[in-house]
Design a protein that fits this description.
Helix content is 37%, strand content 4%. By secondary structure, the protein is mainly α.
Length: 90
């Protein structure tokens, strides 16, 4: 993509990753962080072929902490079951 500095996006992602490996929605609202935003950060990084904005070890640890007893992946660690409602798009 011409005309823009592609380093800006990974730098922004780096600011949004939390200490537990998830990603928050915005810098202003730190209360909304879960698997949805981790997925988005990974999709963006894959599309740009630039993973410099993602601490992959933290991200993998977060994903592992969200695996439920039935093998699904919950939005947050400690959830008793995964929720398909989290992936519905209107």
């Amino acid at each position: 993509m011409n005309g823009w500095d592609s380093r800006i996006v990974p730098a922004g992602l780096k600011l949004l990753q939390t200490s537990n490996g998830s990603f928050q929605a915005t810098l202003a609202d730190t209360s909304d962080h879960d698997m949805r935003f981790l997925f988005c950060a990974c999709a963006i990084s894959a599309a740009l072929d630039d993973w410099s904005g993602v601490d992959k070890d933290k991200a993998v640890n977060f994903i592992r902490s969200c695996i439920t007893y039935e093998g699904g992946i919950a939005l947050l660690p400690g959830a008793l079951q995964w929720q398909c409602a989290a992936i519905w798009v209107n």
